[in-house]
Specification:
Elements (H helix, E strand, L loop, with lengths): L1 E11 L4 E4 L6 H16 L3 E6 L5 H10 L3 H23 L9 E10 L2 E10 L1 E5 L5 E5 L7 E8 L5 E8 L6 H7 L2 E3 L3 H20 L4 H17 L2 E3 H10 L10 H15 L4 E3 L11 E6 L2 E5 L5 H4 E5 L5 E5 L2 H7 L1
Helix pairs in contact: 2-3, 3-4, 5-6, 5-8, 6-7, 7-8
Length: 334
C-alpha cells in the first residue's frame, strides 16, 4: 500500500467555514490517517452504491484528482460538503440533533491493481487538554472514531470497480450518499430485506430443520424478531445477536459453520451487508408450522422468549409431550 495524496479540511457548518489544513506532517497525524484508512477498508458495516452519473460534481472531481490535480479537486469536493451539511442541519433542527463539526479527510492510495480513494468526514469530540491547563478543546478522537466515508476502488484506467459507503452511526445518513455524493443504491431496502431473509431462511434454516428441530425453531424465531424489531440490518450485528450468542440445544449443532455460510450469502444471493429493514417484505414468511400429529399443527409467529412459553418433556412411560403456558388456552381446554 502506497499513500499518494492526502488532504484534511475542517468543516464548520455552524460558522459556514471550510479551512484547509495546509501542512499535514508529524507522526501522530500520519498514524491517524493510516489507521483511518485501515479501519474503513476492513469495516464490514457497509453498503454498495453506484454513481448516479459520470458527470456529477464529486465523480467529475475524482477523475480530476486521479489525473494529477489532487489539491484543486480536493478543495472543490470539501467546499461542496459545507452547504450540504448546512441544509441537512436545517432539516433536523426540530429533532434537537446536531451534525458535528469535523475533519473532511481525502486519501488516495495505490494498492496492487487498484487506486483506492477514501472520502471521510470524521467527527470531532471535545476533551480537556492537560497540556493547556485543562481547557476545553475539540479534535479528532484517536481511538473511538465516528465517521462517514466512501471507499472507491478504481482500476488503472480510472473506471470504478467497487464503491462502498460507511457510517458508524445507527443508520447511514442520506444527506451523505444522496445529496453530497449523488449516489444510487445498488439494491433498494425492499430488495435487501426480501432477498436477505429469503436467503437466510432457505440456505440456513431449512437445512437444519430436520436434524436440529429445536435449534431451528429458536434460531428462526430470533431472526424474525431481529427483522421485526430493528430499523437497520447490519450483518455483523445480526450474527452477534442471533448466532454468536446462541447456546445450542444439540451439542453437535454446527454454529460456526452456519455463521460462515451466512457471511457468504450477501455475495452469493445479491444483497447488502447493511440496509434499512422493510418488515412488510417478510410478513408472509413469519409463520412457522410444526406438525404435532396428523390433523394437529402448532403455528409459531413472532414469539418472544419462546423457551419460557413452550417446554418439552417425557412422561414416566417415555411418551413425549410439549407443555404450552397460556391463560387463554387454559380457559379453552379446561
Amino acid at each position: 500500500m502506497n499513500i499518494l495524496n492526502t488532504s484534511i479540511h475542517k468543516i464548520d457548518h455552524f460558522n459556514s467555514k471550510v479551512e484547509l489544513l495546509e501542512e499535514i506532517e508529524g507522526k501522530d497525524i500520519t498514524e491517524y490517517i493510516t489507521k483511518l484508512f485501515d479501519d474503513i477498508s476492513r469495516d464490514k458495516s457497509k453498503r454498495r452504491f453506484v454513481f448516479r452519473s459520470d458527470t456529477t460534481e464529486v465523480r467529475s472531481q475524482l477523475k480530476e484528482m486521479l489525473n494529477g490535480h489532487f489539491n484543486k479537486a480536493a478543495n472543490i469536493i470539501a467546499n461542496r460538503l459545507l452547504p450540504i451539511e448546512i441544509n441537512a442541519q436545517k432539516e433536523i433542527e426540530h429533532l434537537n440533533v446536531e451534525i458535528q463539526r469535523g475533519s473532511f479527510i481525502q486519501i488516495v492510495v495505490e494498492d496492487h491493481e487498484f487506486i483506492k480513494v477514501i472520502l471521510s468526514k470524521a467527527d470531532h469530540s471535545e476533551f480537556l487538554d492537560e497540556t493547556d491547563k485543562y481547557r476545553l478543546h475539540s479534535g479528532l478522537p484517536k481511538k473511538k472514531k465516528v465517521y462517514k466515508a466512501i471507499l472507491i476502488n478504481f482500476k488503472k484506467d480510472f473506471s470504478t470497480e467497487q464503491l462502498y459507503v460507511y457510517d458508524t452511526n445507527a443508520s447511514i445518513s442520506k444527506y451523505w450518499w444522496d445529496s453530497f455524493l449523488e449516489l444510487n443504491e445498488v439494491y433498494t431496502d425492499e430488495e435487501n430485506t426480501r432477498k436477505s431473509f429469503t436467503a437466510i431462511d432457505s440456505a440456513i434454516f431449512s437445512k437444519i430443520k430436520k436434524n436440529y428441530p429445536a435449534d431451528h425453531t429458536y434460531l428462526r424465531n430470533a431472526a424474525i424478531t431481529y427483522y421485526r424489531n430493528r430499523n437497520e440490518f447490519d450483518l455483523e450485528d445480526f450474527l452477534s445477536t442471533t448466532f454468536r450468542e446462541y447456546k445450542p440445544h444439540d451439542p453437535n449443532f454446527p454454529v460456526d459453520e452456519l455463521i460462515r455460510k451466512v457471511e457468504e450469502l450477501p455475495e452469493k444471493k445479491g444483497f447488502d451487508l447493511r440496509f434499512g429493514i422493510k418488515v412488510e417484505e417478510i410478513r408472509a414468511r413469519i409463520i412457522n408450522k410444526i406438525m404435532l400429529q396428523p390433523g394437529m399443527e402448532l403455528h409459531l409467529k413472532d414469539v418472544d422468549n419462546i423457551e419460557r412459553v413452550v417446554q418439552a418433556g417425557l412422561e414416566d412411560d417415555q411418551r413425549k409431550f410439549i407443555k404450552i403456558y397460556s391463560d387463554s388456552g387454559y380457559e379453552h381446554f379446561k
